[in-house]
Fold this sequence. Notes:
The protein has 500 residues and is an all-alpha fold. It has one domain. 84% of the residues lie in helices and 0% in strands. The radius of gyration is 23 Å and the shape is globular.
Amino acid sequence: MKVFLINGILLTIGSFLLRGIGMSFQIYISNKIGAEGIGVYQLILSVFLFSVTLASSGINLASTRIVSEELAKNDILGSQKAIKHCIIYSFLMGFLAFCILFFSADTIAKISFHGKVSGFPLKLMAISLPFLSTSSAINGYFTAKRKIVKVISFQFLEQILQIFVVIYLLNFLLPPGLESACLALVLGSILSEILSTCYSYFMYRLDIYKKENLPCQKSFFRKIFGITIPVTSTSCIRSGLSTLKQLLVPTRLEKFGASCETALAQYGIISGMVMPIILFPSALISSFSSLLIPEFTNLSVNKRNVFMNKTISKVFKITILFSLGITGVFFTFSHQINEFLYPGTLISPYLKLISIIIVIMYLDTVIDNILKSLNKQVSVMLCNILDAFISLTIIFFLLPIYGVYGYIISIFVSEFLNFCVSLWTLLRTCNTKNDKIKIDFVHTILKPILSLFLLYFFFTYFSFPIHSIFGLLGNIFLFFVLYLGLLFFTSCLSKHELSL
C-alpha cells in the first residue's frame, strides 16, 4: 500500500503537470488558429485515433497484466520474456496500422475534411504509429514493475518536445493558414512520439541490463493474443463508430442550418475547448485508477476478494467526493474560467452544462480500469460499442433538430449508459452473498451535494473580486478548503477513511 500510494502521488503530480502544460498549449493553439481550426484538427485527430486503436489497443493492458502475473509468481525471467513478446507484437500491429492509414489518407480527407485540408497530415501521422504502439507496451512493463517515475519521464519528454516543435513551426517556419497549422501540430506529434519511444526503449534496455538472462521456454504470444485480439476487435468497432460520430457532427450541424465554418467552430468549442477543461482534473483519478490494474490483478490472483471489495468501496467514495467538488468548481466559476482562458469565445454555458456529468465520467474511468484488472476487458469494450452506437444514432437524428445541444445530449446519454452497464458488470463480478461493494448514499452523495449548493450561493454573492488568473485560482482553492471542511463537519469524510 505504501508503494501504491507513493506511485499514485508521483503519477498524479506528473499527470497534473502534464495536463496543465497540455491544456495551456491547447489554449495557446485555440487562440492562435481559432475554433474552426480546432474543429478541423479534431476531425484529423478522430481519424488518427482509430489507427491508434488498431496499432496499440490492448497491448498496454496485456503487458501490464502479464508482467504483473509473472512478478506475482516471482518469475523474473518470465516477466522479461513476456515484455519482449509484447514489444514484437506491438511493433507489428503498429506497422499494419501505418500501412492502412498511409494508403487511405487521401480518400479519407476527400470524404471527411470538408475541403479544408488534404490527406498529407494523415500520411505524416501514420509514421508515428509503430513507435506509439511500441511505447505503449514498454509503459505497461514499467507500470507492472511500479516504476512510475520512468513512465512519467516518457510522457514529459513527449509533451515538451511536441510543444517546442509546434510553436517553432507555427511562428518561424510554416506560412499562415489552416493546413499549415494542422501540419505543425502533426509534425510536433510525430517527432515527439519517435524521440519519446527511443528514450523509453533505452530505459527498458537499461532496466534489464546485467540481470540474469537465462533461456526461458515460455511463450506468451497466446496470452497476448487472448487479451489483445478481443480488446482490439471490440475497440476497433467502438473506435470506428466513435470516429464516424465525430466526422458526422459538423455535417449534421450544417443540416440544422449552420454554415460549414460555424459547424466546425461549434464542434471545435465542445471537443477542443470544453472537454479538455472538463477532463483536466481527472488526472488524479486516471493516475490512481491506472495503478489499480496491477494491484487488483494481484488481489485477484491471490483470491483476496473481501479486501478487494472493501478497497473498491473506499475508492468509489473518494472518487465521488472528489468529482462532486470538481463539478461545483466548474458550475460556480464557469464564466470566470471562460473569461481568462478563452476571452474571445463563449464556452461558459457548455462548460456549466457538461460539468453536471463529471461524477459519472470520472467514476466510469475507475470502474473500467478495475474491470480490466479482473479480465473483464471484453465486457468493457462491448459496453463501449453499445454506447458509441447509441450516441451515433442520437447525433444523426437530434443534431439537425437541436443543433449543438443535440451533441451535448449525445454526450450525456453516452456517459450515463456506459456508466450504468460498467457498474452493473462490476457488481455482478465482485458481489457475493456475504460480501458486497457498498456506497452510503447519504454521506457520499446527498450531503456533499447540499454542501455544494451552499458553496455555490456563497461564492455567487460573497466571493472575492476576481481581476486576474491568480484571483480565480485563489477562489477555487478557497472553494475546495470550504468543501473539504463541510465534508468533515457533516461526517461525510473522516481521517480513518483516508488512511490506507
